[in-house]
Write a structure and sequence with these properties.
The protein has 16 helices and twelve strands. By secondary structure, the protein is of the alpha/beta class. The protein folds into two domains: 257 residues, Aspartate Aminotransferase, domain 2 (3-Layer(aba) Sandwich), CATH 3.40.640; 123 residues, Aspartate Aminotransferase, domain 1. The strands form three sheets. It has a seven-stranded mixed beta sheet, with helices on both faces. The two termini are 14 Å apart.
Length: 492
């Protein structure tokens, strides 16, 4: 008998490929309910090839599979713009308390007073943090919060008889959701240039701002990881033109306790609780993207909004609300995590989060600037954007560097964004990581740069040590294998 594969390779078989006829992972008790026929046999299928495996095989399969994942709990995860930071596990425990996790969104308000009070307190805290006191927690994610903010801007102008204001001005460095959300809100997108320092070109903004301007969308800090030094001049330009300023505050990790967006002239913003305020990432959600506005826009907020009326807490609909944007009232358990995070840290703690995030990003930038280009050579905020253009000149693309990082147990940074930067590597170390972890990352990045000189194949053929190595990405994109098919036993 010839053993063709190692045990490790056998472990990599899909669950379907482990199937043995007649094997079961369960033993159901005998039913004490009379057997009933399905009313419509057409809805029944008997051709599904489900795996027949033991319970141990199921447990072992998924346990091994989970150990092959990159995660925040197991790896450094410098995914820029996404804020893949450590989230205290106690906040998960708090959100799973029966009195919070087991309530139903359709319960009478008098039976969930504590929950609504929590929502009201969180609204107040977010209003204080951002300087925009009127808050709705309804949006379920950042893009939805962004969309809600733009609908508020439209409703505001229409209520004033300024229906001709249909233009959203957006920087060329903006996240792709910005123009998408603006278009969905019925606005026409006009792009403003960035200058050589990565800031909004103020002169170009003046030219574009007119009686048709509904809103200017600005990411603070920008997608280059930079604070906009002309922010006060920018908000003045837009306000003088009669428009509103929307700030994409999806990631507030550089601003907590340091600056309030409302104090800068911002009228509307949203923030991703699942980035800044303690929510584990992965699995596609849940998320939360509350929208915050100045008092004069409060009546347009999406409903519901938590209010305290004579000592009773209610979920109210603002006077001229843009309406409901989901079935209920936001991601409640995400709100619980955020509230616990804010109260545990307090103002000084939140400020230290931002300060450490900024220090960590600048530490990486300062130690890699001699090996990787900087699109804007100045202090960054919570993330730094490097360019692998020097490495590209030696035949190594940014994507190659990203795959080589995997061999060292480091997740790739955000790649090729913002698009105005050639071979962009967006790196966000967050406040969670130790100096030792940052030093390891810096050493690996410097080693990869050296490998580009002497052993470029190590990079171009990476990753080497993962269960799945270098893929044919063109074939994978154009001819993906989307269905399982049995493999020949001789190939196992």
């Amino acid at each position: 008998m010839t053993i063709k594969k190692s045990t490790t390779d056998i472990d990599r078989r899909l669950l379907m490929d482990r199937s043995v006829p007649g094997r079961k992972a369960f033993a159901l008790p005998q039913s004490d309910v009379p057997v009933q026929e399905w009313p419509d046999q057409v809805q029944m299928r008997d051709d599904l090839e489900l795996p027949e495996v033991s319970q141990l095989e199921v447990i072992r399969y998924f346990s091994i599979l989970s150990q092959r994942n990159f995660s925040i709990d197991t790896n450094f995860y410098p995914l820029g713009s996404c804020t893949m930071k450590y989230n205290p596990k106690i906040n998960d425990e708090l959100s799973n308390l029966p009195g919070l996790a087991d309530i139903h969104p359709l319960q009478p308000e008098e039976t969930v007073q504590g929950a609504i009070r929590l929502l009201k307190n969180l609204q107040d805290d977010l209003g204080e943090i951002t300087g925009l006191p009127a808050v709705s927690l309804a949006p379920l994610a950042g893009a939805q919060g962004e969309y809600a903010g733009l609908l508020i801007a439209r409703a505001y102008h229409e209520a004033r008889g300024d229906a001709q204001r249909t233009v959203a001005i957006i920087p060329d460095s903006a996240h792709g959701t910005n123009p998408a959300s603006a278009t969905m809100a019925g606005l026409d997108v006009v792009t403003v240039r960035s200058d050589l320092n990565g800031n909004v070109d103020v002169a170009n903004l003046r030219e574009l701002s007119d009686s048709q301007t509904a809103v200017f969308m600005l990411t603070i800090p920008s997608t280059l990881g930079l604070f906009e030094p002309n922010i006060l001049e920018i908000t003045e330009i837009i306000h003088n033109a009669g428009g509103l300023v929307y700030a994409d505050g999806a990631n507030l990790n550089a601003l907590l306790g340091i600056v309030r967006l409302g104090d800068l002239g911002v009228d509307i913003c949203h923030s991703n609780l699942h980035k800044t305020f303690s929510t584990p990432h992965g699995g596609g959600g849940p998320g939360s993207g509350p929208v915050m506005v100045k008092d004069n826009l409060a009546k347009f907020l999406p409903n519901p909004v938590a209010e305290n009326r004579d000592g009773s807490y209610v979920l109210a609909k603002p006077e001229n609300s843009i309406g409901s944007i989901n079935g209920f009232h936001g991601s409640f358990l995400i709100a619980v995590r955020a509230y616990a995070y804010i109260k545990a840290l307090g103002l000084e703690g939140l400020q230290s989060v931002s300060e450490n995030a900024i220090i960590n990003a600048n530490y990486i930038q300062a130690n890699l600037r001699d090996k990787y280009n900087l699109p804007a050579d100045r202090y960054c905020m919570h993330e730094t954007v490097l360019s692998a253009s020097r490495q590209k000149d030696r035949g190594i693309a940014g994507i190659d560097i990203a795959k080589r990082l995997l061999d060292f147990g480091i997740h790739a940074p955000t790649m090729y964004f913002p698009m105005i930067v050639e071979e962009a590597l967006m790196i966000e170390p967050t406040e969670s990581e130790s100096k030792e972890t940052l030093d390891h990352f810096i050493a690996v990045m410097r080693q990869i740069d050296e490998e580009a000189n002497y052993t470029p194949e190590l990079i171009s053929e990476a990753p080497h040590d993962l269960p799945v190595t270098r893929l044919d990405e063109v074939t994978a994109a154009r001819k993906p294998i989307l269905r399982w098919a049995a493999i020949d036993s001789d190939d196992q």
